């Protein structure tokens, strides 16, 4: 590991997931709310589209855990129905309609799979490290095709995907690197499986493109780690509210400036929008079910 030039002590690795790095890129203020402020600021109501995504992911993971003879589309539909998350919808009717649509997604998707081809991993956690960052994450599915591993990521959003989504994804690149190092097999192909349309978007990385993604992750980690350290130094001496008030202490301007809001369309979907005046001014309020496709 790198050495600090004056103290001669090992540099502490920044431990994170790709999600944490992307949160820093999207909005440092949301990053602070999510990972640093304790207690965590209250979130808005749950999102219906998140309920759909989690329900579908859980059903597909459970399907692969079934014995071979039960890996049928009908069983996939049953698993979806049993594990349906009924949060964020306008009413029971909308929830039931989307449960049926999600069931159609998983039954149609699994009908095209060969249940005899066992994945290398399902909901598999992988990790890797450099001299700067310790990265870990959980992959939806890890296949082996020929002599190489393939990272598979399920998507349920309303927006169709294209090749750039797979090529530019920091998370998928990190998963490929970590999978290769954990499993000791090459991994260059990453795939996005969009269940609403049944489309598969893929990208074949090179060693060079994966190295660029990893270098980018280190750059983000360095920025975030420096802000983290400043925050923790302040937090260690901050005066905490007494009594029943468990809200975090007021963040001084010099610390708040390290975590500026990055306003834009994403502010409408931020769980912490109510705590961010800039985000509220830059976006319209969304109802919990507005993220569902038409």
TrEMBL record:
**Where on the tree of life does the source sit, at the highest rank?**
Bacteria
Q: Where is the composition biased (Basic and acidic residues)?
A: 242-253
Q: Name one GO biological process term.
A: DNA repair
* Occurrences of domain PD-(D/E)XK endonuclease-like (ranges): 17-277
| Region annotation Disordered: where it falls in the sequence | 231-257
Identify the keywords attached in UniProt to this record, alphabetized. Answer: ATP-binding, DNA damage, DNA repair, Exonuclease, Helicase, Hydrolase, Nuclease, Nucleotide-binding
Q: Which Pfam families match?
A: PDDEXK_1
User: What is the protein name given in its UniProt record?
Assistant: RecB family exonuclease
Source organism: Streptosporangium becharense
Species lineage: Bacteria, Bacillati, Actinomycetota, Actinomycetes, Streptosporangiales
């Amino acid at each position: 590991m790198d050495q600090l030039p004056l103290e001669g002590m090992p540099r502490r690795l920044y431990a994170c997931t790709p999600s944490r790095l992307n949160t820093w890129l999207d909005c440092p203020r949301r990053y602070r709310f999510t990972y640093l402020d304790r207690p965590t600021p209250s979130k808005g109501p749950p999102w219906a589209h998140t309920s759909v995504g989690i329900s579908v992911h859980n059903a597909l993971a459970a399907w692969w855990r079934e014995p071979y003879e039960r890996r049928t589309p009908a069983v996939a539909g049953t698993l979806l129905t049993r594990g349906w998350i009924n949060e964020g919808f306008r009413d029971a009717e909308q929830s039931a309609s989307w449960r049926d649509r999600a069931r159609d997604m998983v039954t149609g998707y699994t009908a095209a799979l060969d249940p005899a081809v066992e994945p290398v991993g399902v909901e598999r956690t992988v990790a890797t490290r450099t001299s700067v960052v310790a990265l870990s994450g959980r992959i939806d599915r890890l296949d082996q095709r020929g002599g190489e591993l393939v990272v598979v990521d399920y998507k349920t959003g309303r927006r169709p995907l294209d090749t750039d989504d797979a090529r530019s994804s920091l998370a998928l690149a990190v998963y490929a690197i970590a999978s290769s190092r954990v499993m000791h097999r090459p991994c260059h192909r990453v795939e996005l499986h969009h269940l609403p349309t049944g489309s598969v978007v893929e990208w074949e990385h090179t060693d060079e493109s994966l190295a660029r993604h990893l270098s980018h992750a280190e750059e983000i980690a360095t920025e975030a780690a420096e802000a983290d350290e400043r925050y923790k130094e302040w937090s260690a001496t901050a005066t905490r509210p007494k009594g029943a008030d468990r809200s975090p202490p007021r963040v001084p301007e010099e610390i708040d400036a390290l975590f500026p809001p990055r306003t834009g369309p994403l502010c409408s979907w931020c769980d912490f929008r109510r705590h961010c005046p800039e985000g509220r001014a830059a976006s319209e309020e969304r109802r919990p079910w507005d993220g569902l496709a038409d």
